[in-house]
Design goal:
nine-stranded antiparallel beta sheet
Length: 435
Amino acid sequence: MYGFALRRPVVLSQSRIIVPSAFNAPDWVLSGANVDLDFAGNRYWDGDNQVSLAALATCSRASIGYATTADGNLVQFPVNAIRVTTKGLLVEEARTNLLLQSQTLDNATWNKTRSSITANVATAPDGTVTADKLVEDTSGGSFDVNQTVTKAASSLPYTYSFYAKAGERTRTDPIVGNAGGGFFVVFDISGGQAVNSGNFGTGWTLTSTGVELLAGGWRRCWMTGTTDAGTDINAKNELDNGTGSAAISDGYAGDGASGLYLWGAQLEQASFPTSYIPTTGATVTRAADVVRGSGSLQSTIAPGSVFSVAIQMDGMPGAAGLGYKTLLNPGTDATIDYLYTPPSDNTQVRDTSAASTLNASAAGQSTSMPFGTALGCNALGRSLVMSGGTPASDSVAWTGGDSTPVYIGSGLASIEFTNAYMRRISAWNARLPDA
């Protein structure tokens, strides 16, 4: 294993970095680190003292934002507040929720088919009593709530997501489509999984789906696919009276009382979901998170050509097939990136001033798995490793650092966002030896 050792080695494991504690720092600080930002633990070290996060990083975001805690609660953050929870630091690109009245399904914007909405009858994932219940009527057929929005006349990726909680009905069958076709998923809300999916009509293809388990029995379900070239798109949630089988059970005689709970509907013109964006009477765009290092983090990494840094991520769920995601941008010409290239994941150092790259991979690593990566560099060259993988080294001097602020979770020009939770960044002002 590759590691760093001022006193004893740092060892990268599958999901974390393990080191003995430093002599003159709290036990949680990585050995000898000049700066340590433990986002998930909400602990921050500047080399001399335990400090607030504001002493080491700042955030600019011209909108509110949401993030999820490790125990599955949804937390709202005000404008320009850095989004840190027990899952870590969340840095995301700008996104727009195209659905109106995202958590008021009783509003006339939402069409109801053989169903009704009972408003504000349950505690939502954010702790407010704003969750609605979709209730079937007594007729026969399918029972749903839906909304149609316009789109460009071309085939595009769209992602529909929503929060659901089981009631008398424990499954929902969301459908995204139009008169020409669509794609669907059968979600077993009690079981927290998708049990069936597919496409129908012409020009529509489901590409991925997932479920995030949250507190209080809530699930965030999402589905992504490509559309036809039509100019409208409808997002629908049907009730399903099945009990866990793969078969779709969306046509039956209703009892006039049964249903399930829904909240936070979101449609994004994108190939993966991002955090919740609430809407009322108009679409809403959540601004990008621009997170910059300051204080000891800036002085340790950016100006010099000699340093070491270790980064821990809580997976990269939005990265599959989407190119580079910048974990850290220490200067104008230098980035530390994540690149998904099945069957392995890769981290990569790009130094455009030297026109060079260095790659390290971890076989069997998927985008949903936590991982760590570590870089050491000086005038003699660079060493890079991704958790559990073989170290990669070269003799290219690090020339990319400068006085430009360190960007965390995105590139300098607000590009290549991680769209994921970063658990920790630790840095040293030396190239530490391999262990």
